[in-house]
Amino acid sequence: MTVRQLSHLRYLALATPKYDEQLEFYTKHWGLTLVQEADGVAYLAAEGSPEPFSVRLRRGEKRIDLVAFGAHTRADVDALAAKLHAMDVRFVHEPQELTQLGGGYGFRFFDIDGRTIEVSTDVELRESRKINPREPVPVKLSHVVFNTTGLDKTTQFYIDALDFAVSDTLVHPHMGDMMHFMRCNNAHHSLAIAQGPHPSLHHASFEMRGVEEWMRGTGKILRSGARMVWGPGRHNAGDNTFAYFIDPSGNTMEFTTELAVIEDEDNWHPSRLDVTQVTTQDQWGTANAMSEFVARESFNDVDNGLFVAPPV
Fold first, then answer.
1. What PANTHER family does this protein's entry cite (predicted)?
2. Tally of CB atoms within 10 A around 82
3. How far separated are the first and last CA of the chain, in Å rounded?
């Protein structure tokens, strides 16, 4: 039986010079709830999640501020910190009591590409609720995908450092491996690593209650005037639905639902899925065809936060 010290994806923190526009988009249209705002920093919760917040926005130069993962216990936090020290990973700070919304106990470090990663436990959970039938708001943050120039090296870092496992891989017959889907629990992926021209945010994805709510949410975002890059459709890897949009800062954001759960991890065998096959990208065949122009949307801007800790 697979046992890990990490438990789940906790939140995504982004900085943007279009703070006001971004905040309005995520609350008015995307369906997140503003739970706290002060001094150009906003904490946004997903109504179906007990996490104190799922997205943090900060006014500033565009970048990923950090991605946070949960650990089961304080002992797990300390053990992971010791493991990373033994690997000579650069730390932002050691395990300590956290002072942000929700508190908790955790540490921050730079991954192999320079992104800030947080591992925490004992946060003060909020009171979540069941999402109503046909309600077009996210249940939770589903997964985050990074671009990297060294796919295998970055993937191996997350395997070695945080005990992620590869669930499936997208491959091209001429270009080789393109994306690894990675899990830290029995969800098919909480993280994915994509080969790209530079390190950056590829996309972040939010889980909807079901297909009906996913479609209604997709329609709501279309009516907001946001541009849908790709979708609606259903992936092969993860078996989840997808609809990708561009937010006001140029980040790709996804509505999804029905992500696969791997019940027997010990006997799971990752598939290598050919991206030139239509059914790999979209089982239904309802989305616009994947092309180099669609793929380019998720290259995003070069991340300016590499090896630079966020101010909060």
1. GLYOXALASE FAMILY PROTEIN, METALLOTHIOL TRANSFERASE FOSB
2. 11
3. 38
> Could you give the domains of the chain?
6-121 (3.10.180.10), 140-297 (3.10.180.10)
What does the DSSP assignment read for 33-61? EEEEEETTEEEEE-TT--SS-SEEEEESS
Say if residues 237 and 181 touch (Cβ distance below 8 Å): yes
Do the beta carbons of residue 194 and residue 202 sit within 8 Å? yes
Place of tokens 């899925």: 273
Helix axes 151-162, 74-86, angle to 10 degrees: 130
- Asked whether the CA dihedral 258, 282, 158, 292 is positive or negative, the reply is negative
Tens of pLDDT, residues 169-224: 999 999 999 999 999 999 999 999 999 999 999 999 999 999 999 999 999 999 99
Cα dihedral: 43, 46, 52, 58 (round 10): -20
With a CB cutoff of 8 Å and minimum separation 6, the contacts of 140 are: 46, 48, 49, 51, 54, 206, 207
Q: 311: which 2 tokens? A: 């101010």
Provide CB contacts within 8 A for 171, sequence distance 6+: 177, 178, 272, 273, 274, 275
Is this prediction's pTM over 0.85? yes
296: how many CB neighbours lie within 10 A of its CB?
A: 12
Q: Quote the CA–CA distance of 154 and 11 in Å, as a whole number.
A: 20
Q: Which residue, among 276, 120, 303, has the nearest Cα to 199 in the 3D structure?
A: 303
